[in-house]
Amino acid sequence: xxTDTGVRGEILATLPTLRAFAVSLCGNIDRADDxxxxxxxxxxxxxxSFEPGTNMPAWLFTILRNLFRSEYRKRRRxxxxxxxxxxxxxxxxxxxxxxxxxxxxxxxxxxLPADQREALIxxxxxxxxxxxxxxxxxxxxxxxxxxVNRARVRLVELLSVDDIEYFGPDQTxxxxxxxxx
Length: 181
What we know:
The protein has helices at about 5-25, 30-45, 55-75, 85-90, 95-110, 115-125, 130-135, 140-160, 170-175. The chain is mainly α. The model has no long low-confidence stretch (mean pLDDT about 80).
């Protein structure tokens, strides 16, 4: 089904209520107009999925609502940084160094005794509490704390770490060796 005159008429007749709905959703007239425009573009692009004889306004409102929700989810993760302070604090480390450091960390972890490595991964990398790690390993909390401490000390030795910046911004790697807690 193409966008014949009847379908265009139905779409145009729905625009005022569609716009009012968009304004009620986002509270901003300019944003609402953009939302309505994107709704119409998508509706026309997918007009073949509309079943003739069904409720055109309901179909358009559903498209608009879905667009709004998708954008809301996307925007919810955005950080407002009007003065650029957050952006200035970001650092981008060269990727090849990160790969080498990850490989070094893997090698160092492989050289730890299995019980220490297990405790360290559970507490440092997986984020379990000492109690949870003890429950998983079937031992006392003090045993887990001791294993984690010995593993961290040994890892620092194996990696020859003398500066916190060695681990860059990777919070997981820092947590494994006990930095930044």
